[in-house]
Amino acid sequence: MSLLELRSVSKSYGGRANQTVVLNNVNLSIEEGEFVAIVGYSGTGKTTLMSILAGLRKADVGVATMEGVPITGPNPQRGLVFQNYSLLPWLSVLDNVLFAVRQVFPKWSYAQQCAQAEKYIALVNLTAAIGKRPSELSGGMRQRVSLARTLATQPKVLLLDEPLSALDALTRRTLQTEILAICEQERCTVCLITNDVAEAVLMADRVIPLLPSAHSGATLGEGTRVSFLRPRNASEVCALPAFKQIKRQTIERLMSARQQSLANELELATV
Amino acid sequence: MSFAKFKKLLLDGILLPAVGIGFVMFFWCILSALTYDMEAKVSDFPSPITTWNDSVKYFVHPFSSNTEEGFDGIGLETWRSLKLVAMGYGMAILAAIPIGFLLGGSHNFARMFDPIFQVLRPISPLAWFPLAGLIVIAIRRHNQEIDATQLQCIFTIAMCSIWPTILNTAVGVRAIPQDYLNVGKVLRLSPWKLFTRILLPATIPYMFTGFRLSLGIAWLVIVAAEMLSGKNGIGAFVNNQYQSGTYGPMIAAVIVIGVVGFMLDRIMNLIEKNSMLLLSLPSRLGRMFGRLSSSSVRPSLEAATSRMLPEGPLLKKESADVAT
User: Fold this and answer.
1) Does residue A231 have a cis bond before it (omega within 30 degrees)?
2) Which of A9, A119, A145, B273 would be a feasible disulfide site paired with A59, CB 3.0-4.6 Å?
3) What part of A 219-258 touches B (C-beta under 8 Å)?
4) Contact B226, B232 (CB under 8 A)
5) CA-nearest residue of chain B to A101?
């Protein structure tokens, strides 16, 4: 039994008159300890897919299950890292992390909760900024706090919803390697959603394209296994011919699906 | 402090404002010169010096009531007004916070009451005053002890100053980012915790803006209300001096009204700016007491950073070490 599973999930928004199908017949299964990356164009329903996995939204058709149990709502066991960090601006770095820890482990002693929070803040290299407010931190640092907050609740699976897409390219690369290292150390099960194919291939064990289509909603394509050894070194991996090949293949599949979808749309428009 | 900084402070903080005050004084003098009555040998509009000479007796012992001479110091009158403002304003914001949360949080509530609020909001204090009088009459039928005019002033202040806090709170509630709510959902906060830990803190900056605007209105209204009621307070003072033709003290009182209003605004501004600090206070205090009560030995950072204990049991061992 896989840890996290979607079976023929569909989701659409809007009323009957102007219904937009976002996801159509999505099937996904994530094994324990696996790092899965889903890549796709922006606006093709990546965040909707993530909300269904997190339990923030319900699928219209099909089921989402975790360890075989249907997902009915959000749960800290599926730790979600948001694209916009979503830190609480009135709390310090420590208090942001501690807030989550105290909520998820209410029975621990206070010292234990603090130690947990401090441990994960140290893990993302933010011990020096522990007393600062989010407004005093850079974007990259904020996302690290967000990651620490989620990791500190010890989720069974980590859901990363475009965690790096608000960052500049250099910070993005630094954080990719850091998150990669942390996930390898912690042996997390991860589902990463991204629009950066190189990022997906660098980090994941399996890269799945989210293929857009004109009016029937996006669906997941066939995954490509990425079997580079771990721990991975970013610059070494990027130089591998296999890396380049998987990257090119994925991009081509995404692009052809996009062109197909655009062509269909045009056809429908002319008819 | 460096010399350049000192010079800047002197210029910005003292010299330039002094020049501004000088200008206003100059125009005040011109105004009084223009209104000079040749026959009576006085200005209709008293000059700054006349104003000072006529009103100095109210300022010498501002907080004493000179019963023998039959007048109260200006400080005492101001204090009476401030007490009424505090009561009316307090009532207003206590009522406004829950109403604001309902207005911002519930679509149905907003649909029900928003039009009414929009109609009530522009009603002048002068119009609220008689309406408040009706309620006071009803209350006085049950309790003769109550000071009717004071109560009337308080009601008027409350009705006029409630709106900015209601509307700003509602705006604040509507402006809470969906992300914060998602954090609350993922952590499965109880409704009470969601309110106290996320909704309330996220709204507080907006609420404080409302508080500041409300206090400004409350201070505007008290003067008008006291002029109508005509007994005590700085507003009544202005009116009485006007009626008895002693214009010097009247002008002085008007200036006092302005200065007090300015100071109230400054104080609220200071509180508003530090509302973020206030917000982090509970967690800071909590940490202080939490640490004191839980254990005198806290985990050192080295222990906390000792790397990557992947699973629960190891972590428990670590905290067991801490406890010993």
Assistant:
1) yes
2) A9
3) none
4) yes
5) B187
Which of A48, A87, A90 has the most B C-beta neighbours within 10 Å, making it the best mutation to test the interface with B? A90
- Spell out the per-residue pLDDT of chain B, length 324, in tens: 678 888 888 888 888 999 999 999 999 999 988 888 888 778 888 888 888 888 888 887 777 776 666 677 888 889 989 999 999 999 999 999 999 999 998 999 999 999 999 999 999 988 999 999 898 888 888 888 888 888 999 999 999 999 999 999 999 999 999 889 999 999 999 999 999 889 998 999 899 999 999 999 999 999 889 988 877 889 998 998 898 888 888 999 999 999 999 999 999 999 888 877 777 777 677 767 765 554 433 444 434 433 333 333 333 333 333 333
What's the count of helices (H) and strands (E) in chain B, helices before strands? 15, 4
Give bridge partners of residue A12 from the DSSP assignment: A21
**Per-residue CA distances from B240 to B54, B74, B196, B233, B260 (Å):** 15, 13, 49, 11, 20
CA distance B179 to A83: 9
Query: Looking at the partner chain, which of B276, B304, B319 has a beta carbon nearest the beta carbon of A90?
Result: B276
